[in-house]
Amino acid sequence: MRIRRSGRLLLVYDILRLIEDSGADGVTISTIVMKANTTHDRAQRMLELLQERGFIHKCDRSYCLTQGGRDAVAQMRKLYHLAEALGLA
């Protein structure tokens, strides 16, 4: 059995945290690409996925969290801390 790495999950977590940290003004895709250390295409795909699922929305040229996005990043933060405590992150 092949185990897939969780690169996409960590990228989603990074994007949600970046948007959360940016506050009400949101964050641009350029900032996401730079700070999440990913490509523009990959960031765009993840942003589209997060928008479709209702975790983020477009606010002018930036992306902002919805309440669902705030809830998701809080749950992901708990999971990440658990993984760290178990030595998995």
Could you outline the blueprint of secondary structure elements for this entry?
Layout lengths: L6 H16 L6 H8 L3 H13 L3 E4 L2 E4 L1 H19 L4
Helix pairs in contact: 1-3, 1-4
Radius of gyration: 13 Å
Largest sheet features: 2 strands, antiparallel
The general outline is globular
- Average per-residue pLDDT, rounded, comes to 91
**What is the N-to-C succession of helices and strands?**
HHHEEH
Q: List segments where confidence is low: pLDDT < 50 over at least 5 consecutive residues.
A: 1-5
CATH homologous superfamily label: Winged helix-like DNA-binding domain superfamily/Winged helix DNA-binding domain
Give your account of this protein's structure.
By secondary structure, this protein is mainly alpha-helical. The chain has one domain: Winged helix-like DNA-binding domain superfamily/Winged helix DNA-binding domain (Arc Repressor Mutant, subunit A), CATH 1.10.10. Helices cover 63% and strands 9% of the residues. It contains 4 helices and 2 strands. It has helices at residues 7-22, 29-36, 40-52, 67-85; strands at residues 56-59, 62-65. Strands 1-2 form a two-stranded antiparallel ribbon. Helix 1 (7-22) crosses helix 3 (40-52) and helix 1 crosses helix 4 (67-85). The longest helix is centred in the C-terminal third of the chain and has 19 residues, at 67-85.
